[in-house]
Amino acid sequence: ITGTNNVCVDKTVILSTNNVAGGSGIYNYYYWFDNRELVSQPFTNPTVQITGITAGPAIITYKVRDSRGCFSNFSPDFPFLINPLPIAPIAVNVNQVYDGLLHTAGANAANPSTEQLSWYLNNTGNNPTVPPSATNVGPTITSFVESTNVSTGCISANRTPVTVDILPKGLNITANDKSKLYDAQVYNGGYDV
User: What is the 3-state secondary structure (H, E, C) of the chain?
Assistant: First the structure.
């Protein structure tokens, strides 16, 4: 068997037979097995698409049936690994009363030593961006982040929304019993100035 010996959950790779010989020489069908259990209907083509369903190891083999109905033995074992997907990152949102400073949200990878974060404008699609940040009060700023396992290349099934909310600062009015100047007019009096 030739082809990549691993795949991420929900992804597909193509495997091919090689060096098929003997029998009638006309090979009608190829039967693919996982741990000696048939996993597909017979194919007339010597290639198969393998999709990762459940993370874990597998042993892929195949048999060939020739035009006279004779079956080959199992091919040599092809050790295969279905890699798990990283867990979606954990959002570190910002919910901050306006203070005049720039605030940037972030995210934490579930396994920081093996995962890298990538930021996007939307929940799907290839539109890279940076973590959301804001200084002034306004609409919520949102970016989306996903995790990639740096050794397997597997990407988290979902992107995590990460938000920045800058909230209005409360208005404080302090009155005292002194004169005030409003519109060039001096006002004297108590706390009702």
Answer: CECCCEEEECCEEEEECCCCCCCCCCEEEEEEEECCEECCCCECCCEEEEEECCCEEEEEEEEEEECCCCECCCCCCEEEEEECCCCCCEEECEEEECCCCCEECEEECCCCCCEEEEEECCCCCCCECCCCEECCCCCCEEEEEEEEECCCCCECCCCEEEEEEEECCCCCCCCCCCCEEECCEEECCCCCC
